[in-house]
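Predict the 3D structure for this chain.
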Amino acid sequence: MSNSSSMAGPDEVPPPAPPKPAAIDIKKLQADLERALAASGQTPAPTPLIRYTLADTSALRKGVSNATVGRPDSLATASQPLAATPVDPPGRWAYIPFPVITDILQYDTKRRALHWLSRALVRDTAGMVPQMDIYGYYQHCFIPYAATHPVLPTAELLDLLLKIFKGSRNDTITGRVQAGVVDTYVIRNVAWRGQPAIVEKIGVEVLEEKEQATNPLGFGAAERPGATPAVATSIGSGAETVGIDSSAPATTEQLNQAATSGLDDLDDDHIAICLQMTFADKCAGRKLAHLPEPARTRYWLRMFFKHGSNVEIEEAALWMLYEQTFNPYYDERPHLDDVQFVARITKVFKDAEEVEVGPEHRVIWGIKPRKKRMKALVLLKKYAEEQTNRAVRHLDRMAERKDFELRVNNKHRGLNRFQEMMLLWPLLALPAGEPSPWLQRLQRRAGGEPLGDHQPGFPGVSMKRLASEYRRDYEARRKMADETIMRAAAEGAPGVAVAQALDEALDRYPPPGPATRRALNADGEGHTSPSRAKGVQASEVPGRRKSA
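Done. Predicted structure below.
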């Protein structure tokens, strides 16, 4: 009994199916909207979401040809000749927020275009805008000032757009019309500022509906079975559908509320970095204070920043941190000014670019802070290697020009490590072309001048103290180098072999000790073995003559 009572009786009638929503009369909806706005005294500016629905998708569902959907009757037949220059429909640009341009009219043409692009467009990784719409709206905004303020050509404007919006690119979308296939050229990864972001999966559909409504040639949207007349909105990676009942006239406020329900204040999806530097970070950066410019700025940037995509840093904030770090040393070692500093950033980071996003408002695009700063010791070692390699190349070029003759020649390297030590050690922060204390001491010795303890330009560098540290730190390696040379001399090797053994010993056990240094700097022709300090006379080495 319980089962029979739960079943529906034969006389019961199933509930009627819910009525299907009537198709939207687009022309009537647009006319009502314009009349309501005119009565309220507002400017006709329907929201972008409503603007996207100006194509009658119900006609597509019924199988009507794309060529006749949303087109005037005068253009519905192929027998009618097409206008050579289509006229913009009324309110074509009404759905785009009008950027303020009165404060940029005093700039030149290119700078005005740059400000206009930054105010009219925004970066959107899932959006795209037709190229003809961008340039058409650009001309439309400057029509009142066309007599005295010219505009850029199409190619220059689009090229400027691709430069200031990172990731934007040209693309071609193919659509079907009555006459055949038409290609529409678009700019991807940008959108009109103030419009909602468009997710990737509905981007093409939205563009087709928009082109259908605004293009008098009827650039057609492909037939999509099951399409419903609704407003497509998107937040993040999802899409919602908001239905509008056209049975009752809708007011402007209702339309705007239905179109923008659930939308946040969407803006560019790039990341704006907020720079914060602790006292420890400033102290770490000041370990590079003794380096010369522009090497100091280059290594400071490498310490705290790296390449980054889709990020920007305020130029003023970056300059302030740099100035605070090295300002205490400005009297002795001045840092770069702001113009040189920005130029150095774009040279260190090849993908970085200075972008002017507003009047007197600039950002650095393409770099981001490191999660963990680089150690100053690593950077200083790299700087020492660069200085050494630069000096070696410089001396090799001088040797090729016969400007001087190196005492210790090496066919494979051109310079051994001892010569590098004599020319560069200690590895002080020396600008290019400035001799180190060791090199000055050698030059004074060659000229017969007193050597002195302190060299010109280095009042705090004691040569005696450096020699003491030099001898104490490398005494063991010096002994091994001397033993290698003594063994080669005791075996009766010729003088060339002894010199070669000297080079190999110096390369294997860098740097040599004071005995080897005195021998290599002694006057006389050829090589003088440091084994003289160990009791082996130069005359005992075959192929050598005793120096005077």
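The chain has a mean pLDDT of 63.
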